[in-house]
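Section 3.1: Structural characterization of target chains.
Under the original work plan, the team committed to producing a structural model for every single-chain target entering the pipeline before any wet-lab resources were allocated. The record below documents one such target. The sequence was received from the expression subgroup and is listed exactly as submitted; it comprises 304 residues.
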Amino acid sequence: MRILFVTATRIGDAVLSTGLIDHLLRTYPQARFTIACGPVAEGIFARMPRRDATIVLSKRRFAGHWLSLWGEVARRRWDLVVDLRGSALSWLVLTRRRAVMHGGRRAGHKLQQLAAVLGLDPAPRPAAWWGPQDEARAAALLPGEGRFIALGPSANWAGKVWPPERFSELFRQLTAPGGRLEGARPVVLAGPGATEAAMAAPVLAALPGAIDLVGRLELPEAAAVMARCALFLGNDSGLMHLSAAAGTPTLGLFGPTPATEYAPMGPRARAVLARGTPGQAAMEALPVEDALAAAIALLDQPAT
């Protein structure tokens, strides 16, 4: 059985789509997969089981990336095409079955919206895949038996970024004597590039003992690193979703984006919202005490 799965360009949306892939992997144990995704999301699928190929969709003028994709897949006959981009491609290839996500805003969490494409209820949780080589790298980067707290201070736009001094203050309150994660070490993660590095720099400066992994990890390595952490604290970002998928207790910090649609989803994951109108409040309206209370409640929450 051959399945073509067309998914997102952004890391967070690609992570959320892995729940559908995990469902298909379990439902069709003989199936082989071809994944089509954007360049930054490619690593999400690098360790995916039964993946024959990943086709990277690099945006081109006049929608040329879709023509290129069609050229790579049109010569095969597929058993199932899942198209989360709602493109014309799924109607221009030979397949026994199509599942196409159509455009437009919908109510509910993104995970539920994706699940509706395959008629699934409840929605399957996202998955994260990493291998022995990623485990080994994570163990080398986070040595010893102590606990670690992963901090994700970056995001894809400045409006989603919590003030960096609050990250360091929240970390201090969690790890101080008598704190919920007393003695834990900070691990700072962000993607590659100068913008991400600039967002992370003030947090690194405020926590001189932090393990600096900014721009140093491939996505499977990042998943393995976060899986070794006692807690992830971060802005609404792809790393936040990957952490939740990896099973790490994950607290997403939300202000001007809707947690009703993009809260982290995992066995132990929750969002804490800035005070004010949900989905419209500034990140500055999220005080440290609210995030601290949410983090402690999350750590006390049993895995589901």
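The chain has a mean pLDDT of 95.
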